[in-house]
Here is the input.
Amino acid sequence: MSIFKYPAKDLYSWLTERQDFLLLDVRNSKDFGRFQVESPFLFEMLNVSYFDFMEIEDECVAKVPRDKPIRIVCAKEGSAKFVAEILEKHGIDDIGYLEDGIKSWGNLLVPMLLNPDESFQLFQFIRPGKASCSYGLKYEKEMMLFDPSRNSAFYLEFARENDCKIVKTFETHLQADYISGSRVLSETAGVEFLAHGNDFGTSKISYSPVQDGETYSFPGNGPEVTVFFTPGHTPGSTSFIIDGKYFISGDSIFIQSVGRPDLGGQVDAWSDILFDTLQKIKGIDGDMIVLPGHYISWEEANSDLNFSATLNQVSNFNKDILAMDNKSDFLTFIKGNMREQPPEYATIRLINGNFEQVDNDKAEELDLGKNECAASAYAAQQ
Here is the structure.
C-alpha cells in the first residue's frame, strides 16, 4: 500500500470505531506535551520527533511496529510525509499522514444530533481538539447557532447540506480560550449576532443585546430559546434554555466541573457572582439536559459519545462544589483549583472583542490546544 494523506474526520472515525493502528506523532516533545490527539477509547500513540528520524533514523524506525497501520501526525503536514517516506523505505506499508497537520485536528467539528425524535433538530458540534462544544438549533428552513468556533465555513456548509439558513448566532460569553466565529458569520453572511452587554458592551462589534428572560422563536411552531443570565465566569455569561428541555450552559457549569471566574483577573468579585449563579442553576428543573461549552476529558461523554447529562446528574457529579453554602469556602476552592491561564488568552479576548486582528496563521497558532476554562480538583492536578 502506498503512502496516503488522510483528513482529520477519518482519524476521528478510526478512533471512535476502535480501529487498531499506531498514531505516530512526530512533533517535538514540548508541542506534543502541550496538545495531542485524544479519544474516548484507548489507542496506541508514540511520540518520536521528526528531527530524531533525521539524525538517528534506524533507531527511530526500530520503535515503530510493523504489524499494524501507521498514522502520522505533525505540525503542518510536511514532516509527517517526510517520516512516512522513511518508514516506507524501511519496508513498512499502510502509512498515512494527517492532512494540514495538527491544526486540522484542532479545527475539526463533529456534528451529533441530540434529539432525533422531535420536530426540531438540536446539534452538538464537538470539537475534539479543543474539548469544546458549539450548538445548532434547526427548525424547518432556519438555524440558530450557539458559540460557533472560527471555522465558519463548516457551519455555513452544514446549513447548506441541511437545507436551511443560519439566522442567529448567540455567544454565551466573551470567549478567552478560542476565537469565536460569530463576528465573521455576522459580517460575511448577515447572521444576527446576539450576546450580553456586560461582555460585549465595550466591544467593537455590532450585536443585538440579550436580556434575562427574553425569548427568541422560529416562524410557526418551532422551539423557543429563553435567555437565562448566568454571570460569574464572565460578567456577561449567559445560558440559553431550548424548548424548556435543554440548557446550553456555556461556561457556567460543566458536566463534571464549573466555570472558572478568574480569567478576567477579578477572581474574588467574580467568584462571589458565580456562587450566586450556581444557586440559581440549582433551582431549575433537574430533568433539564445540560449541554456544556467544554469538557475536561472523554470520560464525561455518554454512551452515544456526546456531552449531555441531566441537571440532576450534573449536580451529583459536582455535589462537593454545589454543597458549599458560603462564598468564602467557594472562593477558597476556586483559588485552590486553578491552573495558570495560558498567556494567549489575553490576545484571544481582544480578538473576540474586535480590538485586535491577526492573520490566519497567527489565529491558527492562538486557537490550538485544549481549553482551560474549568474549576475542578481534576484540573488543578494536571
User: Anything to note?
Assistant: The radius of gyration is 22 Å. The domain at 109-377 is CATH 3.60.15.10 (Metallo-beta-lactamase; Chain A). Residues 152 and 188 are 10 Å apart (CA to CA).
